[in-house]
Design brief:
The complex is a heterodimer. By secondary structure, chain A is α+β, with helices and mostly antiparallel strands. Chain A is built from 6 helices and 8 strands; from the N terminus they run H-E-E-H-E-E-H-H-E-E-H-E-E-H. The chains are: A alpha+beta, B alpha+beta.
Chain lengths: 205, 157
């Protein structure tokens, strides 16, 4: 845990750049799926105590969340957050239609999960290639609930091993639509050592 | 009304009037109140027992140690342990990945119930388990716990 809580500016920048490349490729794949330009914000990267995460995400409205577990040499969770309207619109763009109401039927759910698969799959394979670290993903689960409650459980799962987490937060929007969302990547502080070694190797240090 | 947000692995003990707020998934919110003094408390715990964990991190993370801390604080503020009543909510199973998340919500609830029993504090109402998150608002004046689920009406216990 010698890296926790004090990353150098260089390490921050390098990790941000790595995250940026991954997210860039992921949103390119989203762009192909919906046939529109996808814009992404500069990723925000923080090494923070796990227990501070729920506060950062507390919102009153429930959100559609697609969640995957990151496995192998880097461990953590990936979370795709969409407002209900954004999720409905995305489903509509891919299926041609969507049912009214708050729930998603089986077909719509599987479209959302596929979306999660493609976005996070591209992201992880970009990172895995770049860093030469083996990373795998679980199958996605889809939950519609308060972001705070969902993150709650992630905090529980991670807090059994670590106290700090590297959180990468990127916002995206789809051109000509009101679709926007967030991609959050939680990596535990134990995996960070491994990732930093790779970053240093890439930078020739 | 003054709303006080209770964070994860944290607690608050207050005099009336106040409303204590927190959001739980598989965590458990423990609402405690002495109806005579109208002093109430809300604790938000995320893991069952401090003993089994190797005592890592703050004792407020764990059901057993957090209840102990909260009850002691209430007594210090003038509550009688005999009068304290409990309402609990949370302990959901929102999603599962392999074996890692097995029944953490249920285990949290069990630990909370066990510790309250040990203290002879009656659980006068509960809304636990299932697969959804809950936003809790604990009204110290009335002792009513408002439970908001995504897209559902508020349930009062």
């Amino acid at each position: 845990m010698n890296h926790s809580k004090n990353l150098t500016d260089f390490q921050y920048d390098a990790l941000k750049e790595v995250g940026n490349i991954g997210i860039g490729q992921a949103t390119t794949s989203l762009s192909r799926m919906v046939n529109k330009q996808v814009n992404i914000s500069l990723p925000d990267l923080k090494l923070i105590p796990l227990l501070e995460i729920p506060e950062m995400l507390s919102q009153d409205l429930p959100v559609v969340t697609i969640l995957l577990e990151l496995r192998d040499e880097a461990r953590g969770y990936l979370m795709l957050l969409l407002s209900l309207d954004s999720a409905k619109m995305l489903v509509k763009m891919m299926l041609g239609e969507v049912k009214e109401g708050d729930a998603f039927d089986e077909m719509e759910q599987s479209v959302l999960m596929e979306l999660g698969n493609i976005l996070t799959g591209t992201y992880i394979s970009a990172l895995s290639n770049l860093l030469d670290i083996s990373m795998g993903l679980s199958t996605p689960v889809q939950v519609y609930d308060f972001a705070g409650a969902i993150v709650n459980q992630i905090v529980i799962l991670m807090s059994q091993d670590v106290d700090d987490v590297l959180l990468l937060n990127t916002e995206f929007s789809v051109d000509d639509t009101r679709i926007d969302g967030k991609i959050l990547v939680f990596t535990d502080s134990l995996s960070l050592t491994k990732i930093l070694e790779s970053v240093n190797r890439l930078a020739g240090i | 009304m003054n709303k006080i947000v209770v964070r994860i692995a944290d607690y608050a003990v207050v005099h009336n009037p106040a409303v204590l707020v927190t959001t739980v998934g598989s965590c458990v919110g423990i609402a405690l109140r002495d109806p005579h003094t109208k002093i109430g408390a809300l604790a938000h715990v995320l893991l069952p027992c401090i003993g089994a964990s190797g005592s890592r991190g703050t004792p407020l993370k764990f059901a057993d140690s957090a209840i102990e801390i909260t009850v002691n604080e209430m007594i210090k503020k003038g509550c009688s342990k005999k009068r304290i009543e409990a309402k609990i909510a949370g302990g959901a199973r929102m999603f599962e990945f392999g074996l890692s998340s097995m029944k953490i919500g249920e285990r949290n609830v069990e630990a909370v119930v066990g510790k309250l029993e040990e203290y002879n504090i009656p659980i006068i109402a509960r809304d636990t388990g299932k697969n959804y998150g809950r936003t809790l608002e604990y009204h110290i004046e009335t002792g009513v716990l408002h439970i908001q689920r995504a897209l559902k009406d508020i349930k009062k216990i």
